[in-house]
Each structure stands twice: as structure tokens, then as C-alpha cells.
Specification:
The chain is of the alpha/beta class and 291 residues long. Strands 3-2-1-4-5-6 form a 6-stranded parallel β-sheet, sandwiched between helices. A 3-stranded mixed β-sheet has the order 7-8-9. Helix 7 links the parallel strand 8 and strand 9. The chain is elongated and about 65 Å long. Bound molecules: nicotinamide-adenine-dinucleotide.
Length: 291
């Protein structure tokens, strides 16, 4: 079992760190919030007073922070200077591809190994240890990260070299945003045309319009398997987080010169929906604005 530093014990990181500790790793946990550190201690982690203390002597250091600026600051100001030579850095946050690649290169230049390993699955999957990790980094770094990530998830998939994990994450979420809006507007139109939502679901879920947003996460309450729609759109994947991922995807598309008209329109619709005060609601609540 390994000594692992874990920095960022928020909604996602708290459950992930607890799962590593439950599988027998010594987890040195740090967050700026004392309350988060206390929660981690109660879950079997060893709280660290500073990020330096968490990282010193650890074989691996994991970050699960809000955005690229936080990860860059923590890696450059703390991790690079205090991580043991040859140790493995794993960033599980969702951040921009350019920062992920830059940090991977800076780590390599310092004799450290690094992977970007963003996750699919929300707070419930983080707590249950059933996340999907999409990993960017060398074969060697992936082989080292795999058993650590497997302790927190149901699938660990190598996407390619440094930054490829983040690329996979934002492409997936751009597709999800567009498919959720398309599903929501199809249900809204079906209702206006006098079709019962259940009847439309029964037909479309077995026809060519079928997609995950319909059959696993239906935006209409009482239709399909249980989803945030059945709980007033509380919990689930917040609109604010979907908007964050869409902005990352659109910025990456602009930089790469890729045409993403559907992603761009999804970004406009989620931007307006969030601005109207809905940023804490699950992203499937966009159907309420389309009705
Ligand atoms: P969160 O805001 O709940 O947690 C972030 C934590 O980082 C906070 O506890 C904060 O105190 C801590 N933090 C910030 N700066 C720090 C620093 N310099 N040093 C130490 N700790 C610091 O966020 P979250 O929901 O846990 O999400 C984390 C990442 O995972 C984000 O990049 C998010 O996009 C991604 N993600 C979230 C979900 C989800 O459903 N919540 C799903 C998939 C991916």
C-alpha cells in the first residue's frame, strides 16, 4: 500500500480520498477548509496542516481542485518543490487542455511523472468508488496511476499522451450538453403536439432518437429511470459545472480551429439558463426554459 497526498477535499475529493483510505492506502489529506480536513480525518485519512506536509515523502500526489488556475498554483508553488524525486502526480480536476499539457511537461522536466485523469460520474459515484477515469500521460505513468485510480473507480481508460484525458472529458461533456438540450426540446415539442411524455419516451427510446440523456437521465419527471427530474432537479450535475466544461470545450475548439456549432449553441443556452438564476439546478432542468 502507498502513501498518497490528496489535495482538494470538496464534493468529489472527500469521497475519493475516503475510498483510497478504505483500501488501505495512507492518505495525507489537505484542503484550505478546516471542515474538509476534519471530514477527511473522520473518513480514515491523515489530515495535513499544509500542502507541503501532505506531499513530502508521498509516492503519489492527487489534486481534485476547482479549475486550472488552482491546479497550476498548487503544483508550481508546492508540489514541484516538495514531491519526492520520481513520484507520481495525478490531477483529477477538470481543467483546460493547455494547462494540463504545460503542467505535464513541467513535471517531466523536474524528474516527476504526471497524468491528467479527469472523471466522469458525480458526487454519488465519487462516494461509491464507481468513477470513470480518462487518463492522459505516458504508458509508464499510466501503469503507475492505474491501480491507484482503480481504488476509486469502476473504469480507468488511457486516452493518450499528456492532456488527452482532459480532451476526452470536454469532448464528452460538450456532446452531453447538446444531446440533453436536443432531448429536452424534443419532449417539449412532443407535449405541444399533444403527445404524452411517456408515449414519446416508449417510442423514441426504441427508435433512432435514443440517447443517454433520454434513457438514463430523462429530463421529464416520472419518465424513464429515476433521475434529478424526479427530485425537482436538485443534486445531479449542476448547470454551473456543465457551463464550466462547455467554456473549456469552446476555448479548446477556438484554439484548435475546430467547428463546433452545436457546442457553441449549447454554450449560449446554458449561459442564459445559468444567468437566470438556475446555476445550482441539475443541467437537465434546461427543459423548464424550453417549455
Ligand atoms: P468543490 O468546490 O466541492 O471542491 C474543491 C475543493 O478544493 C474545496 O474543498 C476547496 O476548499 C479546495 N481548494 C481550493 N483551492 C485549494 C488550494 N489551493 N489548496 C487546497 N485546497 C483547495 O469541487 P468539486 O465538485 O469537488 O469538483 C472538483 C473538480 O472535479 C472540478 O474540477 C470539477 O469540475 C470536477 N468534477 C466535478 C463533478 C461534480 O459532480 N461535482 C463531476 C465531475 C468532475
Amino acid at each position: 500500500m502507498s502513501t498518497i497526498a490528496f489535495i482538494g477535499l470538496g464534493n468529489m475529493g472527500s469521497g475519493m480520498a475516503a475510498n483510497l483510505a478504505a483500501r488501505g492506502h495512507l492518505v495525507r489529506a489537505f484542503d484550505l477548509s478546516a471542515e474538509a480536513r476534519a471530514r477527511a480525518e473522520a473518513a480514515g485519512c491523515q489530515p495535513a496542516a499544509t500542502a507541503q506536509e501532505a506531499v513530502a515523502g508521498a509516492e503519489a500526489a492527487i489534486t481534485m481542485l476547482p479549475a486550472g488556475a488552482h491546479v497550476a498554483e498548487v503544483w508550481r508553488e508546492t508540489v514541484f518543490g516538495h514531491a519526492a524525486p520520481g513520484s507520481l502526480l495525478i490531477d483529477c480536476s477538470t481543467i483546460d487542455v493547455a494547462t494540463a499539457r504545460a503542467l505535464g511537461a513541467e513535471a517531466a522536466a523536474r524528474g516527476l511523472e504526471a497524468v491528467d485523469a479527469p472523471v466522469s460520474g458525480g458526487v454519488a459515484a465519487a462516494a461509491a468508488g464507481t468513477l470513470t477515469f480518462m487518463v492522459g500521460g505516458s504508458d509508464r505513468a499510466f501503469a503507475r496511476a492505474q491501480p491507484i485510480l482503480a481504488a476509486m473507480g469502476k473504469a480507468v481508460i488511457r486516452a493518450g499522451e499528456s492532456g488527452a484525458g482532459q480532451a476526452a472529458k470536454i469532448c464528452n461533456n460538450m456532446l452531453l450538453a447538446a444531446s440533453m438540450i436536443a432531448t429536452a426540446e424534443a419532449f417539449a415539442l412532443a407535449e405541444k403536439l399533444g403527445l404524452a411524455p411517456q408515449a414519446f419516451y416508449d417510442i423514441a427510446s426504441k427508435s433512432s432518437g435514443q440517447c443517454w440523456s433520454m434513457t438514463s437521465y430523462c429530463p421529464v419527471p416520472g419518465v424513464g429511470p429515476e433521475s434529478p427530474a424526479d427530485h425537482g432537479y436538485q443534486g445531479g450535475f449542476a448547470t454551473a459545472l456543465m457551463l464550466k466544461d462547455l467554456r473549456l470545450a469552446l476555448a479548446a475548439a477556438a484554439e484548435a480551429g475546430a467547428q463546433v456549432p452545436m457546442g457553441a449553441r449549447a454554450g449560449e443556452l446554458y449561459e442564459a439558463f445559468a444567468k437566470a438564476g438556475n446555476d445550482a439546478l441539475d443541467f437537465s432542468a434546461i427543459i423548464t426554459a424550453l417549455r
